[in-house]
């Protein structure tokens, strides 16, 4: 096994870190307080290539490999998970399924915009009554001539109020997962409405929305993939998304580790730097091990994707471990900082609030354990 990065991977990582150190980290606390990033950051992220990392060059992307994508996600997580989510939902959850399931026309219509950040996309799966169990979602799309008429609602949709494009999952057939189809819906379609959800614990810089569809008329050619294929498209997208969440969580752990080392070597108590106390080193050692272990799980899943091998269980393991480890690392970082960790002059309280949602979205920790358990035992314990 060769864990060394290629020169291209290394230079993208360095480029990403330099950019985020300059353009994001100095502003993240203010954006968090304002409950919105300065959206001028979005085209700048596009210029560096964050939105096009794994989109092929023929569709306006960089054509990078999956390890490079994970390195980008790690750097974004270290800098600001709210910004990471904006990128990973648009490019990762939506752009990549347009690439894998779209017609040539759909790819040419949407991917060049997504790859530069000129088009921002959102992923509309979760509904008020269906979160962990999206196979029973209720939004309905009824055929009417060459169109579908869509009615229903979605909740907790990242980028929902900012997006130009929404990947909407709606029921076109009978009950259960096989009755679901996916549609690429421009958000200026009449009948599409979004309302921002305020008061989130973390990820406050990104827009999270409720979506309402009222007699929304969508041409049939906006369907992504075949009728009834929507659930498998959503699961395919989330499997890859979980690797991205895992990578972002490694970035949170890395950020906690770096901040903690810096603070502990400068702050003195009992006439000695905090870093010289064994109990403080224990906190730092645990963060360091979690960062390395998490990175290995993420890179293994990324490597399986790159080689075209089954990667779903590896993605669940990476997401489960890294999200729980990010909460642990941020909690320990606050402990290490003492009172200073409780206010947003230092980044660790924001790391904690942002990390907390990672064990919830794109499949909760319980759902990941059920997926891993099913893979190990062959028994479905979901329902
Ligand atoms: P529920 O499904 O009601 O779960 C509640 C609890 O029950 C959890 O602990 C869960 O683990 C547990 N549980 C459920 N089923 C089982 C079971 N079979 N066995 C054991 N325990 C179980 N969704 C999108 O579609 N697009 C987005 O862009 C998006 N962005 C989000 C951004 C944020 C900030 C948040 C908070 C959520 C976002 N989501 C998004 C939604 C997210 O994916 C869901 O919140 C998540 O899947 C959990 O669903 P739920 O909230 O309905 O919880």
TrEMBL record:
The keyword Flavoprotein applies. PROSITE patterns: ACYL_COA_DH_2 (PS00073). Residues 122-216 form the Acyl-CoA oxidase/dehydrogenase middle domain. Residues 6-117 form the Acyl-CoA dehydrogenase/oxidase N-terminal domain. InterPro entries: Acyl-CoA_DH_CS, Acyl-CoA_Oxase/DH_mid-dom, Acyl-CoA_Oxase/DH_mid-dom_sf, AcylCo_DH-like_C, AcylCo_DH/oxidase_C, AcylCoA_DH/ox_N, AcylCoA_DH/ox_N_sf, AcylCoA_DH/oxidase_NM_dom_sf. Its cofactor is FAD. SUPFAM superfamilies: Acyl-CoA dehydrogenase C-terminal domain-like (SSF47203), Acyl-CoA dehydrogenase NM domain-like (SSF56645). Keywords: FAD, Flavoprotein, Oxidoreductase. It comes from the Bacteria. One of its GO terms (molecular function) is flavin adenine dinucleotide binding. Residues 228-375 form the Acyl-CoA dehydrogenase/oxidase C-terminal domain. The keyword Transcription does not apply. Pfam families: Acyl-CoA_dh_1, Acyl-CoA_dh_M, Acyl-CoA_dh_N. Belongs to the acyl-CoA dehydrogenase family. PANTHER family: ACYL-COA DEHYDROGENASE (PTHR43884), ISOVALERYL-COA DEHYDROGENASE, MITOCHONDRIAL-RELATED (PTHR43884:SF12). This is Acyl-CoA dehydrogenase.
